Amino acid sequence: MKPRPRRILSRLTGLCAIALLAMPALTSSAAFLTVTVDLAPPNANLTTEGAFDWAIYDNTGGATASISPTNTKSGSSVLNTAALTAVTVGNSVRGTSSKGAELFTYTNGTSPTSQTNATVAEVFDSTLDLVGTGVKFSVAGDPLVTRTLKVWATGFNGQGTLTATLPGAANQLALSQLYTASKVPTLFTITYLPDNPGDNLGISYVMTTDTGGAATSSHVGIQAVAVAVPEPTSAITLLGGLAFVLSRRRRA
Prior knowledge:
The chain is an alpha+beta fold.
């Protein structure tokens, strides 16, 4: 005997409810925050990795109170205001003519519109050779959508610690690699979901180890950031599959 359509529909409804309960981004009200680190990231394509928004800090200027992105995704709505400032109150930040080793590509920038395998400078605290100095910024979130923030960082003769903060969630820390004169990159990926509108994600990146000693220009800095929305969870796939099965059953 073939299952009755109503019975199949009832089972489908129950399974759909279970699948939706497995989607914390839509049903959970608790803030969520995690950080992972890649010590050997591939070259970056900001257009794909920052599908929601991206920004670079290719600044070569001197000391100032804050430094805004030098380029963002066209139509940027989140990172266009993500200025870098010093973690230490009263300190200034600066750029540099010395580029990092990471290569960046994008095709949807504001100005210029596109670049391929471009090197980018970094922004760091103007006070050098001092553990505890670094830069910080904040990013808005959406309580209904889980997002990922990628931070491309580098440094010189030191090692940095990234700290991510979000109201209602435990602080998350991640350590960079030990930087030398080559300014190799470290990629931090932060996944976050705020509990309330206006709960911003805070990012600070400070030098926690000085490997160069006095008068060696030791520092850590940030080159670029990107925001994306993760791919739909497997629950969405499950719902689609269940709908397909139901349609096949009805035709049988």
